[in-house]
UniProtKB/TrEMBL annotation:
GO terms for biological process: late endosome to vacuole transport via multivesicular body sorting pathway. Keywords: Membrane, Transmembrane, Transmembrane helix. GO terms for cellular component: Vps55/Vps68 complex. This is Vacuolar protein sorting 55. It is a multi-pass membrane protein. Pfam families: Vps55. Belongs to the OB-RGRP/VPS55 family. It is found in: Membrane. The chain crosses the membrane at residues 7-25, 31-49, 70-92, 98-121.
């Protein structure tokens, strides 16, 4: 059971992640690294939407999980894009290496916090 200490800890880590991404843009005076925030905020949405759309049936265990797998694929795509986008911008000399590293690390902290929040506060389904 997660409590108030978990919420405070996760919000602190989320704030550090956003701070790193914002500082990567502000310190190096190049705001292309802020695109990482959009990818990490959008990343959990396909997994959530496809999980709701799958509509598991209590009577049929053999229902296909293609929709859930597609949602996981899109979520993985956005997470990899959050890492690959700053790397690509750094490789193209659009941003500095420090900005790319801060953006990647901050983005991973943001996404990790979102995943941790969903794991800690997931409702148990009892039948």
């Amino acid at each position: 059971m997660a409590g108030i200490k978990t919420i405070i800890g996760l919000s602190f880590i989320l704030a550090i992640g956003f701070l790193l991404v914002i500082l990567s843009a502000a310190l190096f005076k190049n705001y292309l690294t802020l695109l990482v925030v959009a990818t990490y905020v959008i990343a959990p949405l396909p997994n959530w939407i496809c999980g709701r759309a799958a509509n598991p049936d209590d009577f049929m265990e053999s229902s296909g999980s293609g929709v859930v797998d597609f949602g996981r694929f899109l979520t993985g795509f956005f997470v990899v894009m959050g890492i690959a986008l700053p790397t690509l911008l750094w490789h193209a000399n659009s941003i500095d290496g420090g900005a790319a590293a801060m953006s990647i690390f901050g983005g991973l902290l943001i996404y990790g916090t979102i995943i941790s929040f969903t794991l800690f506060f997931q409702e148990d389904q009892e039948f």
